[in-house]
């Protein structure tokens, strides 16, 4: 389906949502005419057995910089994001990738309203010549438009699949029983914030050569949000949400400044209604992120006039839910469709590095990254029956059975042939091209479907609760049938949840990684020319292979992923919950073993890409949390908060490249099995590994509300121990078991620890009838900045860049409500 053809579907769906309630208002009433009612929100974070739930009030109160899921969730220890370069890219509004349970970021399952909306075609990809930059999440919704966010990272029900890390489920705002209209505005300027920290190793970030967006010293960000919702008849309610995020980033451009804007627009329309005995929910969603970029010549600091390009990432989707109560239980059905699209529009379809030896030595680069786009279509069908409680003797059973089908297809297109080459113009007039990769204009496509059946039974007997579940799934991409058992049991020493010990054991399988198959098909359009010598005399602009004699010509071969094993993870959990007076204590342990992780690497001996199915890691995550059950009263203030500590011990799959944590990017891989870390020879899976997580992290939240004055103060104090990084020093051959073996030489670096204090003050003047709210948010109020990552070759400052945490940021906001 072409992206533009969805306009008719969008128009029809909007018409249905707007006009259907009037047509259906007289529908026969059921025995229960009550519409679904949202539970009242609370002011504290709710710690679930299986993760974390942030309700709307908690989302609003949390002090964050950019309004996105990454910034909201990074405040919770154990949830990690890749913000290594955030300090030098202060104008960015694109969310960072999120890692759950220390898994690779593409193994996070993003959901909206319980529907998976993952981008599986360009996920975790790099923005580079001939390839699209992507993100695992298909939609970038502003958190102001969210009703709740649930994070599930352990003991996850067999109802859910397609991950080896965890699930983030966002619920968009729903219409309430009374009419509501809300608007909010939030802004930030670089002049209000602290400058990035730069040291001798990367002071050149300020040079114009970095003016392509890697260094953003000036910017202004503006966020607009609107929500309107309420009843339109006795049986129907409508909601509408709109968010526009803008960031103006004037970058260095040939001695001046050129504005490079980023925008993120998202919108939704939802409908809740009653059709006889059926509860109906309709939801239309849309999101599009765009960023303008240009490429500076990294050798001469000049900007080529044909270096501009624009990236976009977004989608359009629709969900229909039909639920009905029967005598034996509840039947719930979901039908959903999402079309996600990544696109680049560039000035030219070539990127050239040029070495000119005709008049001395002149090295330069020019061109852009090429025009291409990829579109992913995903249809989801889900049906489940939730039986009412059944009893066998004194044992209570709560049984659920369900089925799910997900149909994926994706197609990409190069609109014109793309040339990526290095050119040498020699003093004798000859011209060489090496290397020279030509991607022919054309389409490439791939598809993969998934089918799942699941069943669960929650047994309760006296103080014992057992959750037994099983998920069976067929994944076409890997031509694999998987069976994932899920077990979770708990014993209440006293009454429910007052003094409880829980144990769990589960297996999770990755979902379809369609981007691998699509990338392989795309590579099938490429031809690699090596050591090409021009035969046309002084002709230095020809891109016709007939004008050159080449040492080798290689046509890339596609990879068959049916031969790969499905990546999976095994989990063991132990949790202990205890209530002492007004304090709730949770101590937890999570062991997650990632297996069969994928990567592919070009193998010059085979003249083709080679698939590796050997990425693995082990993570032991320990957590301790204290929180109040009811808020305390002190001097007229309502006070509550929590303290949480997380320690992570991880081995395996550390970085063996010169780019920070590069192997979380699926376009980069390694066939290297052996490494030498600080002089010690070991397998890669045995490495002590750093990741986006610090090994020790803690957060202390303290929130206070003075209702009589309309004041709310939220504080988050976070501690992160210094990350452990592995730095590449090079590669050498070692004799292992009598066989010469390539080994990556690595060294370990311990980075500095960090304490930050984020605060948000909101004032809703009672004299304004509580219709106006003014806000001030300050992140990293203490203005602490430490090194958080290093990219490059160890012990070589010429090829190394250090990146630091963000300094202090100041945000102003205003909100109005009718």
TrEMBL record:
PROSITE patterns: TONB_DEPENDENT_REC_3. The keyword Membrane applies. Its main location: membrane. This is TonB-dependent receptor plug domain-containing protein. It is a multi-pass membrane protein. Residues 54-164 form the TonB-dependent receptor plug domain. It comes from the Bacteria. The keyword Mitochondrion does not apply. Keywords: Cell outer membrane, Membrane, Receptor, Signal, Transmembrane, Transmembrane beta strand, Transport. Residues 1-25 form the signal peptide. InterPro entries: Beta-barrel_TonB_sf, OMP_b-brl_3, Plug_dom, Plug_dom_sf, TonB-dep_rcpt-like. Residues 337-477 form the Outer membrane protein beta-barrel domain. It is found in: Cell outer membrane. Belongs to the TonB-dependent receptor family.
């Amino acid at each position: 389906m072409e992206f533009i053809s969805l306009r008719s579907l969008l128009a029809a769906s909007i018409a249905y949502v707007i006009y259907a309630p009037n047509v259906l208002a007289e529908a026969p009433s059921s025995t229960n005419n009550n519409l679904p009612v949202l539970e009242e929100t609370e002011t504290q974070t709710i710690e679930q057995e299986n993760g974390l739930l942030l309700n709307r009030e908690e989302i609003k109160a949390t002090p964050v910089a950019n309004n996105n899921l990454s910034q909201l969730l990074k405040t919770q220890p154990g949830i990690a994001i890749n913000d290594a370069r955030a300090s030098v890219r202060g104008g960015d509004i694109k969310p960072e990738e999120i890692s759950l349970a220390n898994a690779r970021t593409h193994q996070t399952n993003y959901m909206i309203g319980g529907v998976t909306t993952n981008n599986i075609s360009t996920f975790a990809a790099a923005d580079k010549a001939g390839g699209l930059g992507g993100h695992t999440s298909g939609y970038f919704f502003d958190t102001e438009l969210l009703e709740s966010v649930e994070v599930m990272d352990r003991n996850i029900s067999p109802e859910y699949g397609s991950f080896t890390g965890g699930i983030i489920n966002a619920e968009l705002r729903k219409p309430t029983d009374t009419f509501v209209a809300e608007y909010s505005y939030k802004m930030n300027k670089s002049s209000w914030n602290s400058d990035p920290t730069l040291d001798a190793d990367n002071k050149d970030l300020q040079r114009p050569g970095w003016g392509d967006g890697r260094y953003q010293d000036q910017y202004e960000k503006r966020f607009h949000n609107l929500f309107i919702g309420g009843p339109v008849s006795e049986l129907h309610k409508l909601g509408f949400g709109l968010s526009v995020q803008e960031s103006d980033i004037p970058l260095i451009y040939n001695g001046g400044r050129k504005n490079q804007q980023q925008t993120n627009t998202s919108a939704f329309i939802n409908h809740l209604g009653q059709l006889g005995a059926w509860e109906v929910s309709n939801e239309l969603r849309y999101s599009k992120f765009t960023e303008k970029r240009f490429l500076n010549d990294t050798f001469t600091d000049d900007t080529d006039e044909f270096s501009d390009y624009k990236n976009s990432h977004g989608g359009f989707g629709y969900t229909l839910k039909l639920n009905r109560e029967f005598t034996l239980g509840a039947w719930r059905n979901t039908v959903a469709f999402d079309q996600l699209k990544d696109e680049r529009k560039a000035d030219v379809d070539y990127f050239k590095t040029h070495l000119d030896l005709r008049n001395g030595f002149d090295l330069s680069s020019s061109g852009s990254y090429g025009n291409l786009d990829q579109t992913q279509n995903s249809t989801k069908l889900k049906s489940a029956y939730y039986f009412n409680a059944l009893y066998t003797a004194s044992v209570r059973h709560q049984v659920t059975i369900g089925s799910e089908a997900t149909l994926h297809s994706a197609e990409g297109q190069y609109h014109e042939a793309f040339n990526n080459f290095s050119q040498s113009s020699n003093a004798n007039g000859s011209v060489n091209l090496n290397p020279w990769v030509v991607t022919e204009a054309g389409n490439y496509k791939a598809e993969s479907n998934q089918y799942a059946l699941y069943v669960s039974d929650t047994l309760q007997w006296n103080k014992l609760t057992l959750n037994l579940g099983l998920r069976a799934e067929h994944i076409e991409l890997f031509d694999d049938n998987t069976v994932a058992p899920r077990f979770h049991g708990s014993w209440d020493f006293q009454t429910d949840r007052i003094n409880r010990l829980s144990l769990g054991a589960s297996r999770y399988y990755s979902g379809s990684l369609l981007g691998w198959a699509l990338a392989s098909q795309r590579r099938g359009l490429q031809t690699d020319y090596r050591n090409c010598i021009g035969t046309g005399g002084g002709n230095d602009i020809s891109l016709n292979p007939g004008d050159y004699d080449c040492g080798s010509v290689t046509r890339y071969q596609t990879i068959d992923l049916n031969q790969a094993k499905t990546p999976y993870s095994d989990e063991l959990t132990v949790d202990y919950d205890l209530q002492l007076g007004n304090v709730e204590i949770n101590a937890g342990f999570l062991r997650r073993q990632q297996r069969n992780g994928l990567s592919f690497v070009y193998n010059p001996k085979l003249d083709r890409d080679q698939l590796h199915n050997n990425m693995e890691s082990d993570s032991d995550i320990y957590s301790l949390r204290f929180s109040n059950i009811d808020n305390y009263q002190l001097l007229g203030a309502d006070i509550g908060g929590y303290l949480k500590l997380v320690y992570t011990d991880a081995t395996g799959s550390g970085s063996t490249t010169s780019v920070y944590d590069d192997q979380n990017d699926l376009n980069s891989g390694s066939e290297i099995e052996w490494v030498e870390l600080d002089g010690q020879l070991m397998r890669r899976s045995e490495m002590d590994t750093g990741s986006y997580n610090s090994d020790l992290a803690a957060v202390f939240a303290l929130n206070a509300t003075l209702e009589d004055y309309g004041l709310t103060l939220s504080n988050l104090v976070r501690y992160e121990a210094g990350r452990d990084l592995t730095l590449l020093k090079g590669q050498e051959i070692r004799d292992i078991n009598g066989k010469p073996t390539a080994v990556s030489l690595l060294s370990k670096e311990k980075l500095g620890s960090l304490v930050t204090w984020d605060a948000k003050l909101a004032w809703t003047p009672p004299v304004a009838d509580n219709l106006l709210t003014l806000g001030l948010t300050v992140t990293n109020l203490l203005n602490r900045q430490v090194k958080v990552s290093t990219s490059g070759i160890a012990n070589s400052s010429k090829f190394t860049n250090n990146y630091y945490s963000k300094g202090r940021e100041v945000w102003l906001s205003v909100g109005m409500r009718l």
